[in-house]
Design goal:
The protein is mostly helical. The protein has 2 domains: about 40 residues; about 60 residues, Rossmann fold. The protein is about 60% helix and about 5% strand. It has a two-stranded parallel sheet. The longest helix is centred in the N-terminal third of the chain and has 35 residues. The chain starts with a helix and ends with a helix.
């Protein structure tokens, strides 16, 4: 490996650390805003990985509402098989989540 290759790897590693730091800073700011705003319910789409929002909910004391459906996944036999049914389902899910608080 040439010394330039090592230098490039180190710079790449610093860029990754910078991106991670920026991400963590953004999450911390989001947590502060949730607390300041008295947000009590959090929602995510059915196609999202829930781990981050679950951690934010634990950190802030907010409740996770039912998952919302986007237009990305519409199962014919699911709760939101059409656009209109998606809007109806999401409206009911948002109401349910907000009424818990």
């Amino acid at each position: 490996m040439r010394s330039g290759d090592v230098r490039d790897c180190l710079h790449g590693s610093r860029r990754a650390q910078h991106r991670q730091h920026a991400f963590n800073k953004g999450v911390a700011e989001l947590i502060r805003k949730i607390r300041r705003g008295g947000i009590k319910a959090l929602f995510l789409e059915n196609i999202s990985d829930p781990r981050l929002i679950e951690a934010i909910a634990r950190e802030t004391g907010a409740t996770l509402g039912p998952r919302l459906y986007s237009d990305a996944l519409w199962m014919p036999d699911g709760p939101a098989p059409t656009y209109i049914r998606t809007i109806e389902y999401n409206t009911a899910a948002l109401k349910e989540g907000m009424l818990k608080n």
